[in-house]
# Entry
Amino acid sequence: MDRSRRNFCLGAGAAGIGAATLATMPAEAAQARQGGDAARRWAMVVDVRKCVGCQACTVACIMENDVPENSFRTIVSTYEVTEQGKTGTYMLPRLCNHCEDAPCIPVCPTGATHQRQDGIVVVDNTVCVGCAYCVQACPYDARFINHDTQTADKCTFCVHRIDAGLLPACVETCVGGARVFGDLNDPNSAVSKLNRETDPKVLKPEQGTQPRVFYIGLDPKFQGKVDGTPTLWRPAREKEHV
Amino acid sequence: MENQIVEVINVTREVAWLPWAVQYFFLIGLSVGGVLLSLPGYAFARDEWRKLGRVALLVALTCGLAAPVALLSDLHQPGRFWHFYVVFRPTSWMWWGSIFIPFYVTGLLVYAWACFREELQEQGRVDSRLAALYRLAALGGGRNDGLIRATGLVVLAGAALVALYTGVEVAVVRARPLWHTPFLPVQFLMTALAGTTGLVLLLNRFAAGNDRTVEVQANRLLAGALGAVMVVGGVWLAAGLFGIERTHAEALDSVANSEAWRVTAIWAVAATVLPFVIAVAKPAGTGLLTGLIAVHSAWMFRWTVFIGGQTVPKTGAGFYEYALPAGPEGLLGIVGTAGLWLFLLLVITAFLPTPPQSAPRPVRAAPAADRAVAAE
# Structure
């Protein structure tokens, strides 16, 4: 069953894919999960070889989720890489990794951050006190304080769209087809096939978080904290100087 | 041509634990330190520690009452603080903190009352309009060493829990190598003790009779605390420098190439070594200087850990820039918290002026205006 943007439908798929890279969640963690379809495990595979760095996903996410100015639930980190006299561009779409063992969940003092049975990590912004402990605990800098709601915010895989049988906005809009979304519990889904066939990598595997956002063509130099010259474009700074 | 990576586009994550958090960790640390320094003189009735203990108690009380306000302000939804108390979240050290803080502050208030009860009784004997109020506050009793010891042990337990949670809460954050070290809780405690002793020296000078014995005693304690700070800091540095442990090496690597962090490190070392040397070489007559540097050093450690730590990106290149905002999320928060602390100090010292140098004795029928003179 294909979960790419071209052919997305919500069929039943309960079989485990059995991939060695995908450890199962602890039983107690499974019991604690609420909401969502327990038969599914949503995941994303990002093929960085196909990403053209157009930031259409960034914009689609902002429009879909009403993300405040200067904040991002997803962004395509873009790097100019020079190696042996040749210069090229490297694009790396970043978002919440909806980890199997998400470090943002146990630190939450109110239970506002929790994981659904389908693996999506969400924040109940009516419960969140905005303590930002989860912001600190996330190894991927995927979280931030939303200054409209004054609560923790992050990518939800567009959970409202998923529940309505739609793709996440970033996947829907990706012009290069670099983002593939689907159900890991369905062995015939595109994400399951890509996991089996391409041996994708995850960001910061040493953190033990078991991300459920996988990358095809991930350069090890970008797997953790990037050792490079800092960003040139800073929207906040630009705003200050206007 | 060498290989290089230039980050062209990435997100800049702003600091999410604000200067309010720095103020909280600073004040609660100093309060815990104040409790510890007050215990020998009060809970264990050691006369030679009594005067220093009284100043330390002032530190514990003023800082302990101001700290929760700063903590509450660091929440982006402070009105929802009660959400902590309607759930059971034992996996979160912050949740444990929400239990420990009221326990500690309540214990501190009762302990401080037990310690000051003798003074309240004395003030109740003074012929003034407030005498009845003092007598009411003393609840008809005076010094009760048993009660002081019992409440002292309770607040000691609270202080230990607060020291534990404030350190571990930050140290468990694996995502930040600079924070993720078992040394951090010890560093928080040791720098807090140094800061407490520094504030004791300052309050002794300006709000507690400028007692020379207290100054020398506090300077010696300060030297000990600063010595411990240097030892723990040295071990942390060695763990990173010699690659003894990977997280520590990562932590050091993440800041080693930054000029700003190098300057900060030199500054921190100077702010530790300098008062240490002065306190050891000349413990008398230097309290103002060593006290100021020690308080500054304890605050700066927390500023560097929290604000500096958050400027290290977890995935991106280089550092996030931070400029202190002028409003409540920045300078106003710092000044406001300091103002609250000063207000508490003025209220408490106005209500309980420093007793005379000699043993306290009843001052019957003395006009209220003369009390201040008698107190000097």
Observations:
- Chain A touches chain B through 61 residues (CB under 8 Å).
- The first strand of chain A starts at residue 42 and ends at 47.
